[in-house]
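Incident log, support desk, overnight shift.

02:14 A customer reports that sequence design results differ from what the structure should imply. Their input is reproduced verbatim below. On-call engineer (initials T.W.) acknowledged and began investigating.
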């Protein structure tokens, strides 16, 4: 089974990947949060350079994810990525953000199946790297997926990662796992499942229904419980000491990268991690008080002294 870490913009970037791998062992694969390709002829800039730096990702199997509807830019970026040593490039067809969708990218591209088909056929032919896709079921309705799946099945994709929600769901409601199952039945290429695997029971239910599952991508579940991949493989549950060591490593790595802004990153992580505690409201009350780094360190220390992990 391949267990991978989902791309999560602002969260599962190179800092998170490294600290998580150091504390809990590397996952089988990581996807970068979406990156906009540079203009044809230009290099990656700024944040993307740090995210893609082969040194920062050494020893980890990382697949860069691109967000674009421009085939020339995709192919150009794939060439740059090939030159950096990457072995696959992923296309984001799921981002639900209003600005992204309005530009016809991410989940917005799903509303234009003809254009999408032409784009994918073109990039699959010209990309120097194999192309995988991470998709939702559609923009508004599950019924849109029939047509999209027809399109995907006619293309030489390296892999199709299915997050079985539509854009209108954002992250609410339940993933429609049957449509993942339908994808497994039909696709001539490898398929991965993504969505709402938060605990071993979710994983076991997925595998019981679709034992042929070969790749599960984990997102919020790993943010809430960084030991989740180990637990899915029948390993020991998360301990408070481990969580504290992970937290401290993450904080110091973010502080080294972005100074005081590390506090915002940590609070975003806590918005998921608080769910692993008996009293998430109390955890959040502590954490939200810290504005500066020193205040934040004191507030976080209180959490680890006063609060208990659920199930511990
Ligand atoms: C804050 C946030 C940022 C995300 N950023 C990305 C992204 O950059 N690319 C992408 O394909 N999906 C992105 N996603 C979606 C996740 O990769 C994943 O599909 C989603 O969280 C469902 O999986 P989960 O239930 O395991 O979390 C993001 C989700 C969240 C909540």
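02:41 Re-run completed on a clean worker. Output:
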């Amino acid at each position: 089974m391949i267990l991978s870490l989902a791309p999560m913009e602002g969260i599962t970037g190179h800092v998170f990947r490294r600290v998580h791998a150091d504390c809990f062992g590397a996952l089988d694969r990581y996807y970068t949060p979406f990156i906009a390709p540079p203009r044809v002829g230009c290099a990656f800039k700024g944040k993307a350079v740090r995210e893609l730096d082969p040194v920062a990702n050494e020893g980890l199997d990382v697949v860069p994810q691109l967000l674009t509807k421009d085939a020339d830019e995709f192919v150009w970026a794939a060439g740059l990525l090939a030159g950096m040593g990457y072995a696959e490039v992923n296309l984001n067809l799921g981002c639900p953000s209003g600005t992204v969708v309005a530009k016809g990218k991410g989940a917005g591209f799903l509303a234009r199946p003809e254009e999408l088909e032409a784009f994918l056929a073109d990039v699959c032919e010209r990309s120097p790297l194999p192309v995988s896709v991470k998709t939702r079921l559609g923009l508004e309705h599950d019924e849109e997926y029939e047509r999209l799946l027809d399109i995907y099945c006619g293309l030489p994709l390296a892999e199709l990662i299915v997050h079985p929600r539509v854009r209108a769901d954002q992250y609410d409601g339940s993933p429609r796992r049957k449509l993942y199952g339908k994808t497994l039945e039909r696709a001539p290429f490898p398929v991965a499942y993504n969505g709402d695997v938060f605990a071993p029971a979710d994983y076991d239910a997925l595998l019981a229904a679709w034992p042929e599952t070969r790749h599960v991508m984990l997102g919020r579940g790993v943010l809430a419980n960084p030991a989740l991949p180990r637990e899915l493989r029948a390993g020991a549950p998360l301990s408070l000491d481990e969580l504290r060591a992970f937290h401290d490593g993450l904080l110091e790595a973010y502080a080294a990268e972005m100074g005081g802004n590390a506090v915002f990153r940590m609070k975003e992580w806590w918005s998921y991690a608080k769910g692993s505690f008996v009293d998430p409201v109390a955890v959040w009350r502590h954490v939200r008080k810290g504005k500066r780094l020193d205040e934040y360190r004191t507030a976080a220390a209180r959490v680890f002294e006063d609060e208990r992990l659920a199930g511990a």
